[in-house]
Write a structure and sequence with these properties.
A seven-stranded antiparallel sheet has the order 3-8-7-10-5-2-4, with no helix packed on it. With about 230 residues, it is of the alpha+beta class. Helix 1 packs antiparallel against helix 3. The chain contains three helices and eleven strands, in the order αβββαββββββββα. Helices cover about 20% and strands about 35% of the residues. The chain has a single domain, classed as Jelly Rolls (Sandwich), CATH 2.60.120. Strand 7 and strand 8 form a beta hairpin. It is globular, with a radius of gyration of 26 Å.
Length: about 230
């Protein structure tokens, strides 16, 4: 079939329109801006009643005894620490974080320092809206940190003193819509304490009415192009 100059011009215009439409559709469907979900100003439930109940004499243990000489090693912990010695004050913080019992405060500002040689714990509630992706948790601590998300253990490590954001960076899984809970245990074995946190994520995108309209226009453009070819 031989097309006239007018038909050829119209087809070129339609191809350009369809390409622009699909490019806009792709951008609208995939665009998401990283946002800070939690940081040092975020509130959470706080537990400062653990004291030294978790301490052991092992230098490679998660909670070494209360002096620097006893346990200043650099250690990572691929499995969750045993918290049974503090079960009474921790309550159900990993299984029922919205109402943990034990010795938890209501939502409050989380102090960046705490009593030397003791352990403290935090529960942050995360409202994920329509869902979150690309979660990155940046931490700094003096000395140790242990991380759970919705009761699932993800990370643990400790080393000598000093704390700065980015000391540890932990990738967390995507979150579905709803409320989720980040649970953190902080450890100290002497000298001083310190803590920094920042959680960033992308909002999960869904097609908006304008995006759906672009999709419809794209299909119409394809149909028109096909008719001209016929």
């Amino acid at each position: 079939m031989i097309l006239s100059i007018t038909q050829t011009t119209k087809m070129a215009q339609l191809r350009s329109f369809v390409s622009a439409t699909l490019l806009g559709l792709s951008f609208a469907a995939s665009s998401a801006s990283a946002a800070v979900i939690l940081d040092g100003s975020s509130v959470g439930r706080y537990n400062s009643s653990i004291g030294t109940s978790l301490d052991t004499l092992g230098t490679m243990d998660p909670f070494p005894c209360a002096n620097i000489a006893c346990g200043d090693a650099t250690v990572s912990f691929p499995t969750a620490p045993d918290l049974s010695a503090a079960a009474g004050v921790l309550g159900n913080w990993l299984t029922e974080p919205a109402s943990p019992g034990g010795s938890w405060t209501s939502a409050q500002a989380i102090p960046s320092t705490w009593a030397v040689n003791t352990e403290t714990a935090i529960i942050y509630a995360i409202g994920s809206g329509g869902g979150l992706t690309n979660l990155s948790l940046s931490l700094g601590v003096d000395n140790g940190i242990f991380v759970w998300l919705d009761g699932d253990y993800f990370f643990g490590a400790r080393r000598a003193g000093g704390s700065s954001l980015g000391e540890y960076v932990v990738a967390l899984p995507d979150l579905a819509a709803g409320t989720h809970f980040l649970q953190i245990m902080r450890e100290d074995h002497g000298g001083g304490t310190g803590y920094a946190i920042e959680l960033t994520a992308d909002a999960r995108t869904v097609p908006e009415p304008g995006t759906l309209a672009l999709l419809g226009l794209g299909f119409l453009g394809f149909a028109a192009t096909r008719r001209l070819r016929q």
